[in-house]
Amino acid sequence: MQPSDRVYAGAMPIVKSCIKQGRGQVAIADIAIADPAPADALIRTTLTTICGSDLSLVDVIDAMPAGIPQGHEAVGVIEAVGSDVQRIKPGDRVVASCVTGCGTCTLCVGGELQLCSTFFAPLNVLFGCQSEAFIGRVADTNLAVIPDGMTDRQAIFAADIMSTGFAAIERGRLKRGQTVAIFAQGPVGLCATAAAKYYGAGHIIAVESVPARAAMARRMGADEVISPEGAPDKIRELTHGLGVDLAVEALGKAATFDACLLSIRMGGTVSVVGVFAGQDALRLPISNTFYHHTIVTSYCPGGTARLEQLMGIMARGEVDLTPLFTHDFRLADIANAYDLFRRREDGVIKVAITP
């Protein structure tokens, strides 16, 4: 695609985009992109990827209809902006927040753009990033210019999984020197492990059975990795019978939530960032539950300030998440990328997809 040759040429640009074709199926289709609205920007995609929540939308959530363009993590180059956009200009390299805030409602002004009362969840999720180009809504609020010298592979993590993983630790209020167990070392769990290291956890226990992910957990800062089988008992053994100060649920499974509750100390915290797709409720086990515990959930913090904060951490070399990219695909072959990511084979953790 050459958007700069076609934008504002009197016809909507036609781009190749990954769409949900049906349950468990994606396909490449031609879609038309309208000129950006006054507050929006047209972004030519240079790098995108697949998130676990993309799999949930395709494989589990039937309410998400066929034909919807997929993807909410991307970096790219601004091709055109609407008349009201002030901060972003054509030619800028940008990363897009995976959630969209209006920037003017009370919650957005208070710094919680992911809870925007104008584009309320889940309608505030960015769609269509697995494409040659996409529209970034309210560009001045939800895009950030990528610093000179930062690669696409660094910047894209700020869009979603770094923000989500770091939020798991931030909202769990981990204090320097405390103990933490992170259940599941998929991409978000690995970002939570890196965040625990960044925020000064005294002992980091990763819970994972896939060898490649266990090895990556150690690389991201885990002091040890244990099997999910019998994890609460092992965690209590490692913490001299006390349990950890903070347990992170990063898988989205009821059994993992239970294990987190059984792994924390009296007065401990469970921080949930897993997506429980297809489940209506979670049970609250009576055993070891009502000991002054805290349960928090997080929805990916977004907006320009958050993107800039996270890119600053990476630019200073304090966190390096690029090893999470294990495979490269072209957009035309994205169906195979979905299949690989779904099967968790060949050591896959994160896939880099270029148009």
Keywords:
single chain; 355 residues; alpha/beta; Quinone Oxidoreductase, Chain A, domain 1; Rossmann fold; six-stranded parallel sheet; five-stranded antiparallel sheet; 15 strands
Structure commentary:
The chain has 355 residues and is of the alpha/beta class. The protein folds into 2 domains: 3-160 and 301-354, Medium-chain alcohol dehydrogenases, catalytic domain (Quinone Oxidoreductase, Chain A, domain 1, Alpha-Beta Complex); 165-297, Rossmann fold (3-Layer(aba) Sandwich). The protein has 12 helices and 15 strands. It has helices at 3-6, 52-59, 106-109, 139-142, 152-155, 161-171, 187-198, 211-220, 231-238, 254-261, 304-315, 334-343, and strands spanning 14-22, 25-32, 41-48, 74-81, 93-96, 133-136, 143-145, 179-183, 203-207, 224-226, 244-249, 264-272, 294-297, 325-330, 350-354. The strands form 4 sheets. Strands 10-9-8-11-12-13 form a 6-stranded parallel β-sheet, with helices on both faces. The chain has a 5-stranded antiparallel β-sheet with strand order 6-3-4-5-7. A two-stranded antiparallel ribbon has the order 1-2. The protein is globular, with a radius of gyration of 20 Å. The relative contact order is 0.15. The model is unreliable at 1-10 (pLDDT under 50).
